[in-house]
Write a structure and sequence with these properties.
With 178 residues, the chain is an alpha+beta fold. Helix 2 runs antiparallel to helix 4.
């Protein structure tokens, strides 16, 4: 990317992927971005599971009733988990790490999409967190925040159109301030 501004305009959620696999270098670069993400008091309460096994990706694609089926077509899933006892801002820290992965994916020319797991449910009513725990053998004390699906883009998406920016949601010095 030419600049960070260009990167954030280009990054759009991608739910269609090609069959092309990621290189080991791309996977390592994505995981480095995750591990370098900031955390409160440098608690690093997050952990990551990189999944490229097609059978496991297929199982994970059923972690929610809706909004996760495209995961089975991704080349890689990075499951973002965290220890809620390690930090009182574990949700924020894991969210930042999830976004860092997505920005790094875009910088590599890859597509990505955040799949929310926390507070979501499977089609059978089981919590998505419990479902993912069972598939990946995650220790009980850890909680799954999200899964980031990553792969080579299977479609083109237009960059974000700045004419759609909602400037009315920006306030100066106080709410409603001018």
């Amino acid at each position: 990317m030419k600049s960070f501004s260009e990167l954030i305009k280009q990054r759009r959620s991608m739910r269609k992927f090609t069959d092309e696999e990621l290189t080991q270098e791309e996977v390592v670069t994505l995981l480095k971005a995750a591990l370098m993400s900031p955390s409160s008091k440098r608690s690093n309460c997050w952990q990551f599971i990189a999944v490229d096994d097609k059978e496991t990706l297929d199982k994970l694609s059923r972690c929610k009733e809706m909004g996760s089926s495209f995961l089975k077509e991704a080349s890689l899933a990075i499951v973002v988990l965290t220890d809620p006892l390690a930090s009182d801002v574990w949700i924020e820290d894991a969210s930042i790490a999830s976004l860092m992965i997505q920005l790094q994916a875009e910088d590599l020319g890859l597509g990505s999409c955040w799949i929310q797991v926390r507070e979501r449910y499977t089609a059978t009513g089981m919590s998505s967190d419990e479902y993912v725990h069972g598939i990946l053998g995650i220790p009980l004390q850890l909680q799954v925040l999200s899964i980031v699906a990553i792969g080579h883009k299977g479609m083109e998406r237009k960059p974000f159109d700045e004419s759609h920016l909602q400037w009315e949601k920006v306030h100066i010095n106080k709410y409603g301030g001018e």
